Amino acid sequence: MPLLPFSHAHQGETMAGSFFKNVASLLIALFALGYVLPDRAHVERDVVIDAPPEKIFALISDLKSWKEWAPLSSIAPQADDHLNGAGQAFEIQSAHLLPARFTQEIVAAAEPARLVTRTRLAGLGETDSAFTLLPDEDGAVRVVWSLDSNLRDHAPFLLKPFWTYASYFAEPALGPASERSLAKLKRVAEAG
Questions:
Q1: CA 172 to chain centre
Q2: Using CA atoms, how far apart are residues 71 and 132, in angstroms rounded to an integer?
Q3: What is the pLDDT of residues 17-74, one digit of tens each?
Q4: Coil, strand or helix: which one is 185?
Q5: Residue-wise pLDDT tens digits, 22-33
Q6: What is the DSSP string of 112-171?
Q7: pTM for this model (two decimals)
Q8: 136: which of 72, 92, 114, 160 is 20 to 30 A away, CA to CA?
């Protein structure tokens, strides 16, 4: 039993102070760790399509046809878009997904085996995507779609840790959308 009536109150203040110091220390450590953890996000999906590689390549290399199967067409169906001629760039100004501007551009093509695109989200950085078309045993084509990004690269200094942690959610956020898009690409390519 304490000798003075305020002994417990003083001990409670010490415990509360210790708790807040521990929480603050943890937050500072997590913030600092966000600068040194790996910051690359990688998502990869594939599908086997029973269609000639030239037909598949035509669908992925013509940005006009992306509305038939690509993720942005389902994420922002009401978006305003247009194609620019040189370098084939597709731009979406959307108030439905986020008040943001996306630019999708073809940066490299090796017909009918590989296509590389770059997506820029205004203020949030870039994602590089590659489509690799590989012959399958049965005469079909395995289409591998990979997405790579470093979200921390283009972030303001104080937001870099946040984007480092956000990159760990790229797989669960983008993987299912990539699977749905590849399934749509398969349906479109195998039709007629």
A1: 9
A2: 18
A3: 788 888 888 888 888 888 887 778 899 999 999 999 999 999 998 888 888 888 655 4
A4: helix
A5: 888 888 888 888
A6: TTEEEEEEEETTTEEEEEEEEEEE-TTS-EEEEEEEEEETTTTS-GGGHHHHHHHHTTHH
A7: 0.73
A8: 72
